[in-house]
Specification:
two-stranded antiparallel ribbon; 8-stranded antiparallel barrel; about 220 residues; 3 helices; alpha+beta
């Protein structure tokens, strides 16, 4: 464990040194630029796919995300973000509805690494930047009434037939981890169009179903 911590610390120091070495840029016309640490704000919307047994289209739901971050160097940044709206669960069955929806909000923290600046050097006029991120936080789920209504109709004895052994009501808070990629297209000195995809992992009890494996949801977002 100590050796791993030493390796990680050394990697971060090397990354930091490389990032600061790339903090100046001279354009073709001779204009010189110097990187400035700064805050940034992102607002995005799109769709979520919650992994489940129902048909793909039945498990798509709306999604929004708000992020406030800080760019420490051309390569490294971090953001506090809140993602949420709706998730879905479902199964393949003829006698009951295939899917049900519930709501959630998931605040968290992401560590962000600008891959374009890391491998090609910092360029403030670059049109396209690709950033990888990894993070986690707390998923706060609520409004799980639809599947509870289904459970009442099918009866307690049939719950295990539909794997609803983790049925929950009220509000549930669960830790989650996530990773993804963000593509940013420069529109001006201050504004970029962002396209993001992220994968989120939670414990097995998120969608009320017992599957003996982790629950996942995937977000596709576009914003500014």
């Amino acid at each position: 464990m100590k050796r791993m911590k030493t390796i990680l610390a050394a990697a971060l120091l090397m990354l930091s040194g490389s990032a600061m070495a790339q903090a100046q840029y001279t354009a073709a016309d001779g204009t010189k630029y110097e990187f400035k640490k700064h805050m940034f704000l992102t607002l995005q919307g799109g769709a979520q796919y919650t992994l489940g047994e129902a048909k793909f289209g039945k498990l798509i739901s709306p999604n929004v995300q708000l992020g406030l971050g800080y760019q420490f160097s051309p390569v490294f940044g971090a953001r506090i973000q809140a993602n949420g709206w709706q998730s879905k669960g479902g199964w393949c069955a003829e006698d009951i509805p295939e899917q049900y929806k519930f709501k959630y909000v998931a605040p968290g923290i992401d560590l962000m690494f600008n891959l374009s600046n890391l491998f090609a050097g910092w360029n403030p006029n670059r049109v396209f930047n690709l950033t990888a991120f990894v993070g986690g936080g707390a998923n706060i789920a609520f409004s799980n009434g639809e599947v509870n209504d289904i459970a009442k109709k099918i009866g307690a004895e049939s719950l295990s037939n539909y794997q609803l052994e983790y049925l929950w009501d009220g509000t549930k808070v669960k830790p989650f981890g996530r990773a993804g990629l963000e593509a940013a297209f420069r529109l001006s000195d201050a504004v970029a169009l962002t396209v993001e995809g992220n994968a989120n992992i939670l414990g097995d009890k998120y969608n009320s179903k017992k599957a003996d494996n982790a629950d996942w949801y995937f977000n596709a977002l576009i914003g500014l």
